[in-house]
Amino acid sequence: MKITRSDIESMQNRFRATFINSISGYKSLNLVGTRSMSGISNLAPFNSIVHIGSNPPYLGMIARPQTEEHQTLKNIKETGYYTLNQVHEEILKQAHQSSAKYDANTSEFTEVGLTEQASEVSKSPYVKESLLKMTLKLVEIIPIPLNGTSLVIGEIQEIFIGDCMIEEDGYVHIEELGSIASLGLDGYLKANHLTRYPYATLKDSD
Amino acid sequence: MKITRSDIESMQNRFRATFINSISGYKSLNLVGTRSMSGISNLAPFNSIVHIGSNPPYLGMIARPQTEEHQTLKNIKETGYYTLNQVHEEILKQAHQSSAKYDANTSEFTEVGLTEQASEVSKSPYVKESLLKMTLKLVEIIPIPLNGTSLVIGEIQEIFIGDCMIEEDGYVHIEELGSIASLGLDGYLKANHLTRYPYATLKDSD
After folding, report:
1. Which CATH code for domain A25-190?
2. Which chain A residues are Cβ-neighbours of B60 within 8 angstroms?
3. Is CATH 3.40.50.150 the classification given to domain B25-191?
């Protein structure tokens, strides 16, 4: 099936958003935890985490334009910290629900039924139920003027990992934590380990 | 298990790279197809595709610093086009092998045993065997001075999708194509559909 540029243009807006979000493939699903200057905790799902570098350990994520409903970016700018809390099967429903447009004075933790866990390295709350979580210190926000989004880059300060195999070379079997892959705007998948391949060298191709 | 900032710093370099790449979670796996000005085709795996926007349809990816071995960024800059070719189970081994550091005068297509497919919208080659592929037109390269990487943003020009369910609202079941999720630098997972949830509203939380 071939879809041309003009096919894409003639798609209805909501259809196009779902379609384009699907074809870019699986993403990891994380809840971003922040706290406002007035102390209110905030939780929002992000599926746009990218690896920027490992030394120093930088992760990036794409943030939508800041609005009243999107408190995450505002809180990150003001406090300089945020947490990433990976979503596993048992907290998927609550994670999805945290995307609802709650009032800025309302904590999504209370509304969706997840538990705040204090961190020693920042005031940004962890999701206690998450089995893989980390605190990031904001390093840079790079604007993407094309459409008003931005690339938020943070440096990892602390990590908590639940019970899963970590191989001798550092590979973490996050699928053993029940970590969910997301697809499109609202699709969720379970991932099963297939294989790892050794570092590809020219000889291997013979 | 708690891992502190100084634990991360004291990790051996290769261990840290594998570890940090794992904990950011599942990524989609795509082969980026380009062609040099002198006509040589190039193929390289990228697991850093992010959704930037759907109208216009923008996808981003993080590119490592340009070197002799990394021809992709050079080719994109010079020709203004590239293809994304999603990797499914049957071409996984070839896809992984394309990460080897072949000479700039060598086509990874020939070396790993994948087939070039011409496009009508650009000179960048598709991977014929891929079941979900698209051509992107370079829109912007945003430098990330922190570590010399960059965010490459392209606009989708054309899409080919194999035989899979596309729901009425535009959701594409890419797992039916056998699309692979990647983890870390060399781990591959099979994904199975779990569920989709309706758009979260405030009422749903009651």
Report:
1. 2.30.110.10
2. 62, 144
3. no
